[in-house]
Write a structure and sequence with these properties.
This protein is an alpha+beta fold. Strand 10 and strand 11 form a beta hairpin. Helices cover about 30% and strands about 35% of the residues. The longest helix is centred in the middle third of the chain and has 20 residues.
C-alpha cells in the first residue's frame, strides 16, 4: 500500500508546530476536534484537541524555548488490530529546546535539553484522529540534574537513532521487506507470550531465536540501554522476569510495519504483580499496568535494534509511589 498522503499530513503538522508559536490554529487545521490522545503520566487520556493543546503542547512550548523536533524514525502502515483499523504513521526521536522555564514543576537549567518521544498517529481524511504520544519524562529530569531513580541496570544516555541511519521512510518501501519485518516481530512476540525462561542460559537461548548477537536495546530512563544478548539478559530481561508474577498480556491497539521497521503500542500492554527487585524496589505485592511503545529495526532474518518507552511514572503511582511528585519537591 501507499501511505504517502498520510505521511505528508503528519510532516506538515510537525512543520507547522515547529514554526508557528500559536498551537491551537495548527491543531484546528490538522487534527480532529474529538481527538483521542494517549500520553504518559501525568497527562494520561485526553479526548479533544483543544485540551491537548492546553495541557501538553502550550506548557511545553513555553518551557522549552526554540522547541523543535529531531526525528530518527518515521514510517507508516495499515493496522489490522480489531477496532483500530486504518493507516497509522509513526514518528520517533527527540523534542529539543532550551529549558528556560519550569515544566511539570521541574526546575529549568537554561540549557539544551531533549525530550525522548515516540508517537503513533491514526490519519483519516487528512486529519489526525487518534494519537499515542509517549515520552520519557525521567530522562528529561536527569538531564536537568534531577534523578528520579537511584538504581539502573543499563546505561542512561541520550539515545541515537538507527545504527543503519536509514530510519526516515519518506518514500515507498519494498512490500516483501515489510512482510519479513512483520514476521520477525510476531515471532518475537510469540516467544514473549510464553515467557518460561528465567535462568540465564535458557533465556539467552530463547533470545537468540529472534535477536542478533550484537542487538541494541534502548530502554527508558530507570532501566537504561543495553548491548549484546548476554548483557540484555543480565541487565534487563532476566531481572524483569524475576521481578513479576501473574503476568497478563492485554494486547495492542496498533501494530504496524514498513520496510525494515515496525512497532506497536498498547494501553496498557501488560498487567502484572510486582514481587520485588524491579528497578531496585522491594516488593509491593500490587498489580500494575505497563503502557509501552516498542519500535524495532530488522536486519536480515532477525531483529537488531529496539527502542522502548514504558510509562514508569504511571506504573509506580499504581504501586502508591509518586515518583514525579516526590522528586520535584526536592529538586533545586
Amino acid at each position: 500500500m501507499n501511505f504517502q498522503s498520510e505521511k505528508q499530513v503528519l510532516l506538515d503538522f510537525y512543520d507547522a508546530l515547529d514554526k508557528q508559536p500559536e498551537t491551537k490554529s495548527v491543531f484546528k487545521k490538522y487534527v480532529s476536534d474529538d481527538l483521542i490522545w494517549r500520553g504518559f503520566h501525568p497527562f494520561n487520556e485526553i479526548y479533544n484537541s483543544e485540551t491537548v493543546c492546553k495541557l501538553f503542547w502550550e506548557p511545553l512550548k513555553k518551557s522549552l524555548s526554540s522547541l523543535t523536533r529531531r526525528m530518527d524514525i518515521f514510517f507508516a502502515g495499515a493496522n489490522t488490530i480489531p477496532g483500530h483499523e486504518g493507516v497509522w504513521v509513526v514518528s520517533m526521536g527527540h523534542l529539543m529546546g532550551l529549558f528556560d522555564k519550569p515544566w511539570l514543576k521541574i526546575s529549568p537549567n537554561k540549557k539544551l535539553i531533549f525530550l525522548r518521544y515516540a508517537e503513533f498517529n491514526k490519519i483519516v481524511s487528512n486529519k489526525i484522529v487518534e494519537t499515542a504520544m509517549f515520552f520519557d519524562i525521567p530522562h528529561f529530569m536527569s538531564q536537568a540534574g534531577v534523578y528520579p531513580f537511584h538504581y539502573q541496570t543499563g546505561a542512561n544516555l541520550v539515545q541515537p537513532g538507527p545504527s543503519s541511519h536509514d530510519g526516515l521512510l519518506f518514500d515507498d518501501q519494498d512490500a516483501a521487506e515489510t512482510v519479513k519485518t512483520k514476521k520477525a516481530i510476531e515471532n518475537m512476540i510469540d516467544d514473549l507470550k510464553v515467557w518460561k525462561s528465567t535462568d540465564r542460559d535458557s533465556l539467552i537461548k530463547e533470545l537468540k531465536k529472534s535477536w542478533h548477537q550484537d542487538m541494541l536495546w534502548w530502554g527508558p530512563s530507570g532501566i537504561g540501554a543495553t548491548y549484546t544478548i548476554e548483557r540484555y539478559a543480565e541487565q534487563h530481561s532476566g531481572p524483569f522476569r524475576e521481578s513479576f508474577k501473574e503476568r497478563q498480556f492485554n494486547g495492542h491497539i496498533c501494530r504496524i510495519t514498513e520496510g525494515f521497521f515496525g512497532g506497536f503500542f498498547g494501553w496498557p500492554n501488560l498487567s502484572l504483580v510486582h514481587s520485588g527487585g524491579f528497578m531496585g524496589m522491594p516488593s509491593t505485592g500490587k498489580r500494575g499496568d505497563m503502557r509501552v511503545i516498542d519500535i524495532y529495526r530488522r536486519e536480515g532474518k532477525k531483529l537488531k535494534e529496539n527502542w522502548i518507552f514504558i510509562d514508569l511514572l504511571h506504573f509506580w503511582k499504581m504501586q502508591d509511589i509518586d515518583i514525579l511528585d516526590r522528586t520535584t519537591k526536592i529538586s533545586p
